[in-house]
Amino acid sequence: MGNGILDIGISGLLTAQNQLLTTSHNISNVATPGYNRQQVILNTNTPQSSGAGFVGRGVHSTTVQRIYNQFLVNQSLQIQTQSQSLDSHFAQIKQLDDMLGDTTSGLSPALQNFFSALQDVASNPSVIPSRQAMISNGEALAARFQSMDQRMSQMREDINAQVTSIVVEVNSLAGQLAEINQQITLAEGASGGQPANDMLDQRDELINRLSKLINTDTIRESNGSVSIFVGNGQALVVGSQVLSLKAIQSPDDPSDLTLGLISRNNTIQIHEDQITGGVLGGLLSFRSETLDNAQNALGRIAITLAHSFNEQHQLGVDLNGDMGENFFTVSSPKVISALTNNPASNITASISDHGALTTSDYQFSYDGTNYTLTRLSDNTSVSTLVAPSGGAPLVLDGISVTGATILTNERFRIQPTVNGAKDIAVNIADTTKIAAAAPNRTNAAVTNIGTGKISAGTVNPLPLDPNLQQPLTITFHAPYDGQYDVTGTGAGLPATNQAYTEGADISFNGYTFQISGNPAAGDIFTITPNLNGSADNRNALLLGALQTKNTVENGTASYQSAYGQLVSQIGNKTRELEVTSKSQANFLAQIENTIQSTSGVNLDEEAANLMRFQQAYQAASKIIEMSNTLFDSILRIR
């Protein structure tokens, strides 16, 4: 009996000791990240059969179990990786929103100042200081475009640096996971399958840190290890084996860094649309969904402004009597050959319709049969069976491919507007070169007796007619029969017996004008070169009208409204991400609170357990003491 009671007391003492040790361990790790509360699982010893029934033989510790809810942890990982992605995207777009929406350093003030200076030239076309102010404000406008583009390019470089840094951190975590996988397998094997709780917590904490950086999928293997997959199922950790990520140049745009997975000395690209979570997913989504579009949109405004202003400026005459030159320099499309292309392959691309430009990038490819130009924002495409040429270009959204030396399955990225803001600059330094005047003057002869009047006239769109400034004479028939003759030098001249329609366009030598009223027989109207137009502001007024003219997006938006749309889009997206990221963070906090309420260490509860297990330990000691007393009593029997 003594030995039986002693064994029971010892079993109780040992289990109470295990419980005290485990409780103390919990208390010590109350602040340890990723720690899950542990408890000792007890079971009764096999009872002893007797004639009076089964007599208990004490207790033993089956295992030390961590309080862990796999479902909640998986849910937490999914929410956390989404939350980190949203936070990362929001942090980046907030910088862009602040820059674009700034009322002092944004584009709007510079745009307004330039056109205000232009209006001053229109009011004082011969005043040199006004002309100098126009050039200076044009340079300030170009500098504003360039500084905003430079800031966007800096953000792109910062993203590349962060991608590189994150890849290093991901590889470090992957290596630690592979190592701890091996340790867990060995430890649990040596202990007969008992869970290595602290190692499991450490591994879960590593997975938790990894999910903050990149979206992952985990599979728990039968040997206790965990395999980690990224992207579209690419293995990163398999048991104790680890693969490495690498920051590589994007095959389509080497200026952007993307992800590659190193496998057997080969680097396999992980497509960016497969990286949907973590800080890395947020950075890549910001670059592809927001930054690229914003930089293209700003470039489109710069290109459309420069081109439309140049076109109108070339239709005027400067103080020297010469036709106007390009006021701004205009960027050309950026063409990028894929890294896999033959170095000898090339294409020629240009902008054929500046008003039709979009904010998308394009891809030109050849599959062995079709030459295809694709708008990447929505995959709209046009194709031809014959290689594009100057006489038969392949055109989409104002982008023309006019030549291609390309092999089967090769591709080129075309970025029509990405360098628009970077490359814009004022092309004129001499104030006399500003073409504020119109090239021709119209006059009615003083001897006219009818009520006919001739308009000032306008120059037809480019290209200029070589006979633009050749004098023209319009003479109405006498006797008057409703017809007139046009004489002068140029195509279609002389033109006789032209029917007169009041207010109708009359166009010769690239110059269009109208005659109104009722001309009389023999009335004469003339168009002559504007040889002394220092006080003429007609072309300056037409240049000023471009400020509110819809020249962007197929004639649906002005420069300012196009910029306003960009600011609005970025602002709305910023607000959307701010709200969504806060909501996701709150959801994550709720899940983590739920996990903590189950798996976290509660000091009050542990203190109560400590007292309870102490009492159990003391009671078991009393059983041992009682057993010893009984044994001594037996020994004293004679």
From TrEMBL:
GO terms for biological process: bacterial-type flagellum assembly. It is found in: Bacterial flagellum; Secreted. Residues 597-637 form the Flagellar basal-body/hook protein C-terminal domain. InterPro entries: Flg_bb/hook_C_dom, FlgK, FlgK_D2-like, FlgK_helical. Residues 94-328 form the Flagellar hook-associated protein FlgK helical domain. Keywords: Bacterial flagellum, Cell projection, Cilium, Flagellum, Secreted. Residues 341-416 form the Flagellar hook-associated protein 1 D2-like domain. It holds the Pfam family flgK_1st_1. Belongs to the flagella basal body rod proteins family. This is Flagellar hook-associated protein 1. It comes from Nitrosomonas ureae.
